[in-house]
Amino acid sequence: MHRHFLLRGLATLGLGFATSLVVAGEPPSVTVRLSDANDGNMLLSLSPPSVGAGPVEFTIRNDSSIMKHEFMIAPWTGAKNALPYDSKTQQVDENKLKTMQGVEDLLPGQTVTVRLSLKEGRYVAFCNEPGHYRDAMSGVLVVISTR
After folding, report:
1. Is there a contact between 11 and 111 (Cβ–Cβ < 8 Å)?
2. Whole-number Å distance between alpha carbons of 36 and 66
3. Does 4-144 carry CATH code 2.60.40.420?
């Protein structure tokens, strides 16, 4: 059994643009891009790379025209490429992560917006489709205290 919160099929209309303007009371926003190229290279990017603790709004876009991707995020103090990994399934072992959150099964071209609550610390974001994490689909988000 997975110990995390997942959203499946939550789609939003729009072009996936995020703004850096923060209105009083509005949570900070992070734009996440998930992509793969014809040469097989994959990428997960986060902008900005740090936010304040508390609610954070993620706008996640799967830029692929052919592949399904995921956006998973978990607190992690080690190297971003050192998450617990199961070589048989070619995936991060989700059961070994304490408080993982995210969105599974983003279809090609799909954009979703999700609000997650994050405590102060260092997080690793990754795609956990088989083989994608090891193919460089990971990034680091630093969550700083807002006190």
Report:
1. yes
2. 9
3. yes
What is the Cα–Cα distance from 113 to 16, expressed in whole angstroms?
8
In sequence order, the β-bridge partners of residue 18 are none
Q: Per the structure block, which two tokens stand in for 117?
A: 């609550």
Q: How much is the CA Rg of the chain, to the nearest whole Å? A: 15
Given a cut of 90, is residue 147 above it in pLDDT?
no
What is the distance between the alpha carbons of residues 61 and 33, in angstroms, rounded to a whole number?
5
53 exposure class (CB count in 10 Å sphere: 0-12, 13-18, 19+): middle
- The tokens for 92 are 């991060």
Nearest to 73 by CA among 30, 37, 41: 30
> In terms of DSSP bridges, do strands 138-144 and 50-52 run parallel, antiparallel, or are they unpaired?
parallel
User: pLDDT tens across 70-82, in order?
Assistant: 999 999 999 999 9
